[in-house]
Structures are given as structure tokens and as C-alpha cells.
Amino acid sequence: MRRIRFLLVADSPGHTTGYYVVGRALREAGVEVILGGYARPEEIVETALQEDVDCIGLRIMDREPVMLVSRLRQLLSERGLPDMRVVVGGIIAGSDIGRLKKLGVEAVFRPGAKLGDIVAQVSVRL
Amino acid sequence: MTVESGYGNRQRNTTYGHPLKPVYGPDDVTQVDYARDLGSPGQYPYTRGVRPFGYREREWTRRQVVGLGTAEETNQRLRYLFEQGQTGFSVCGMGYAPYESSDSRSEGVLGRGGVWIDTVRDIETLFEGIDVAKVTINQIGASLPVFAMILAEADRRGVAYANLHGTIQNVVMPGGEGEQLRGNHCIDIIEFCTRHMPHWNHTSISARNLRDQGLSSVQEVAFGIYQGLFTLRAALARGFEVDAVAPRITFFFSAENELLEEVAKYRAARRLWSRLMSERFGSRDERSQLLRFHVQTSALSLTLQQPLNNIIRATIHALAAVMGGAQSLSVNSFDEVIAIPAPAAAMLSLRTQQIIAGETDVAAIADPLGGSYCIEALTNEIEAETRLLLERLENMPELKAWQFMADEADEAGYRRQHAVDAGERTMVGVNRYRITDEEEQELGPQPREGSSYSPAWRQKQIARLERAKRERDPQRVEAAKKLLVEAYGARVNIVPPMVEAVKACLSIGEIASLLAGVAGWEELKRRHGLYLQLY
Question: Which residues of A touch B303 (CB under 8 A)?
Fold first, then answer.
């Protein structure tokens, strides 16, 4: 069975602690992590296609989460990836969690999340 | 009932890994010579502070960070805070993006990560009702067009540059076009300020954001001082004397949970900087030897869980900054871990400062913890450890040193998260004394949402930009473009032509495209650093 390929991206440059910490924890747990850095939705989808990833992890700090994920979902569908797994983490208001889940976001990780829980979520085989 | 076993048997360490003793005494400070190592406040080596009478002489600046929506929303919040006793201007978001608000890239971000600025008209709105000659202005980031817009606004109001007080978060990084031009536009700013703006801090070394990734106090100070020396050397290469530029080099530090260690950190940083300026750079002007700093309290130690606890944490951080002698302070809002702070939370941060200043008397005494056995022992230890790390950095090629600092910060963040997950590092509400969301609700109403994002900000900003362009003089625009392109090609100091460009109402997006046309985007990033790469 091939290892899970996970694309990790951020919604803005800078303030990369969480991005780095999550990426490294996943790698050490055996996940194949592709570091996409700061990327716009168009670029995220392009990389997801090229790298044939199983799951996209999006760090959100500067952008409005629901608008961002809506756009990402729309582009994923247009490019033939409507079922792409998406997990997000970062500065996300509690009231947005329900809306993000409706957009097919598998899990929302907020400050205080444990690395072990993130690894378990990403590694799960559906 | 459970009995806490916490301190008894467990070793406690400083953030830099040295054991903390349970008791400190005279034996721990035998090497301290008062005149040589401490001096009274306002005396070399300034361990005890930069002024003889501390805050009685000049209070620290209350400088809460503001930045949301368009210039109108931010101006409203700023004016409200000034009415409530804020004394410094500090706005984030200005000039972070190298494109106009109408670009599709601004969707969902415009106004969320700070205020949006397109043209000098936005800066006029931002400062409306604020006396630019009276407040001290802090520019977060070092966007050159924004700096020029602040100068243009001073011109419009007839305020001489020499009467402006403020700080730009400017630092010279490796790269550039040889020794004379190292630092590129950053060094242009230093040169311009040194010649024309005697009260403007042309350099602000942001060690705080590195620290907030999880570094130790020693790493924070060592990395900060390394960057400060790097910037100073760049200015010396441009032909300045040390005492012409060093007085306006300032620092930006964090304040973490370890209150006593933090106070010792600020003291050690002051002592080390003044010694380096004097011993190594031969400075004669005492102003060069004063390490002056702003503090923004920790964000890393704040928790989403039971967010009201963050008020307590931020108060401890603020106390550390004040007892450590900070010149300027911003207390993080307890809800910033959730979203854009709510107005009530922003107000509470300001009140935290005012309560410390007005009700506690900790600010009535300069260096109130000086002479404490543990504080002096920690101050010595931090200075010694910082010197070792600084030496290590200075023995590296410069690019390697900068990479080393970034890597160490990442590594520290990773280790810290593991320590929290494993319960080795206590975070109340996260790995100890947890309660469920339901239990939290039962305690009563909890503030949990902050301010919400308004997509209407973008429409409003695009309309502002269109109006600014409609009303500008096309001939002046063309002339300013020509001037800017020529200056950029010739590599003369870019500040004056930039002031003319923003006065002609060129937008930041237009300026960035124009300059990219001369030098290419990659070169532009090298010359202008981080603040043309965001978003």
C-alpha cells in the first residue's frame, strides 16, 4: 500500500510555525508531505494534480476561511477532483466550523490541537 | 481532593535549559560589581534602564496594534483608542501586498490581516483627526511606498520631517548589490532618516516574532543583537559613523510567561548592547549605547481553551515588560487566538497597561527587581550565554547565519509543541485543568467570536482606489513614474522620488509593477525584502 501523499499549504507567507510543526510531525509519522508553501487556490489545485496527492492540508491565518475553502472546492471540482480530502487548521472562529464541514472539510484543527490527533486524522484510510 | 506535587521534586529549567535553583543567595552574585556591571539607572552599562528616573521621567508608550478593513475602519478604532488613552500609533497591514485592492488576490484577505492601503489618500484617511506631530508613529513592516506616504502626509500638513517621532520596522538582511548597497532600500531608509529625521527610529529589530515561534530568551536576545549589528555594519559601509546611526537602532522583543527570566533578559540585553557599542564599535555618544525596545506580549502562550485565562497571561507578560524597562508596549488581546479582536478585547488590552501604570506603582520605581539575587544571577547567565551564541553566529557566513536563525526557530516550535502534547510544559486549559465545551458554557457566557470579516470592505476599498485615480493629475503621474524609474535604475537614494510618486497618487500596486519592470520581480523582492512578498 502506498504512503499517503499530503499537500501542505498556507494562505499567506510568514508566521510559519504551525505549518512547519505539522509538516514535520506528519513526515515523522510516515506521511509523504509535499510542502506547497504559501499558495493561492489556483496554485493549490495545480500542485495537487501534479503531485497526485490524497489529501490537502491548509493553514489559515490571514484569509477568510469559508470564502477560501469555497473557492478551493469550486476549483477542485472544475479540475476533476471533487472528492479530494481537505483538512484545515489555524485561526478559525468556532462559528465557521459548521460551514467548513458543509464544504466537505474533513477536520478543523484550532490552537490547542495535538499533533497526534492531526497525524491520526490525516493517516486514516477511508 | 488532589494534591499538587508540581515543584517539589521536579527540576525546573530556564527556557535556555539551565537549571533554576530553588534558592538564590549572595554566593550567586559574588562576581557582580555594582559600578561595572549594573550602574544606576541611566548610567553605563544601562543594565538598570536607560533613564535615571525610569518611568517617572517618561512613561512607556501605550501602543496597541490596530489594523482592520479599510483606512476608515482603522481610523475609527485608532481614534477611539486615542480618546481612551492610547499614546502611540501602530498599524499593521500597510503596504504588505504588491498589488491593488481590485486584484482577485485580495478576495477574502483585504482588511482581515490588517488595514489595506492603495494610495496616499488612504493614509490621509488613516491619520484623519490624529496629530502627526504629537503621536509617535510605528510603521509595522518596512514598505517603502507607505513610508513615503507618511512623509507626504507630513508635507501636506506642513509638519517638518524633523518634527516627526516614530519607528519603522526596518532591518538590513543579507543580499543586495555589494557592500555599499547592501540592504538596498532598507539602507536607503536609514540614510534618509539619519539625514532628515532625527527623532525617527530608522531600524527596529524584530526579535519578537522569532521568539514567538518558541525560542529561548537567550536565542531571542542573541538573534536580535546579531541582526542589530548586521544593520549597523551595513550603515557603516554606507559611510556613516557609528554614533550617527546607532542611536536610532531599536529593538522589538517579546514577553513570555517566565516573568523573572524575562526581566533578566531585558536587563542582559541592555548591558550587552551598550558594552558592544562601546568596546567593539568605539561609540562615544551614550545614545548609541542605549538599547531601547518595544514589547508585544506573547501570542504563542495564549490558548483558545478558556480564553479569559489569556487576560491573566497577558497581564503577567505586560508586568515583565514594565519591570524590565520597556519604552513601548502592546498587550495582545485575549481573543486574538480566535479571530480579529473584538473592540471590547482591544480596549481591555489598553486598560491592562493603564492599570499597571496607574494602580500598582511597579512603574514608580526604576528597575524594581534590580539587586535581587536571582534576577542578577539570571542577568549574568543570559548575558554570558548570549555572548556565546552571538560568537557562533558571527563565525558563520552571513547567509548561513540567517538560515540558522530561521531553522532554530522552527526546531524550537516543534520541540515546544511536543512538550505541550506530552504534558511536560504546562498549558492551563490545554494539557491541565481541561474542561469540556459544555462545562465551559455552564460557567456562563464566554466571549468566543472576536470581530467578523466583512466582504464589503473590499468593494469599499476598490471604490476608494477608483476615485483616487479619477481625481489625480495624469501629467503629474507620468512625470513621477519617469522620475521613479530613472532613480531606480541609477540607484540613487530611492526615498525622495518615492515621496513624489505617492504624492502623484500612484498606488502601491502600480509602483510595484513599475519597479518590477525595471528590475524584475526577483530583484524587486531582493531589494525590498519581505514586504513585497506578502499575500
Answer: 111-112
Number of domains chain B contains? 1
B362-385 per-position pLDDT tens digit: 999 999 999 999 999 999 999 999
Q: Are A71 and B107 an interchain contact pair (Cβ–Cβ within 8 Å)?
A: yes
Question: Which region holds residue B399: left if phi is over 0, alpha if psi is between -120 and 50, else beta?
Answer: alpha
CA-to-CA separations, B53 to B253, B268, B291, in angstroms, rounded:
22, 19, 16
Best interface-test mutation with B: which of A9, A62, A70 has the largest number of B CBs within 10 A?
A: A62
CB burial of residue A7 (10 Å; 0-12, 13-18, 19+): buried
Does residue B53 fall inside a structural domain? no
Three-class SS state of B191? helix
pTM for this prediction:
0.94
Residue B328 phi, psi (nearest 5): -160, 145
What residues of B are in contact with residue A89 (Cβ under 8 Å)? none
Task: Indicate the DSSP class of residue B278.
Answer: I
What tens digit of pLDDT does each residue of A23-60 get?
999 999 999 999 999 999 999 999 999 999 999 999 99
Lookup: cell for B307: 480564553
- Domains within chain A, CATH numbers bracketed: 5-123 (3.40.50.280)
The domain of B114 spans 61-169+445-535
| B425 part of a folded domain | no
- Please check whether residue B188 is in contact with residue B205, taking contact to mean a CB–CB distance below 8 angstroms: no
Structural domain includes residue B367: no
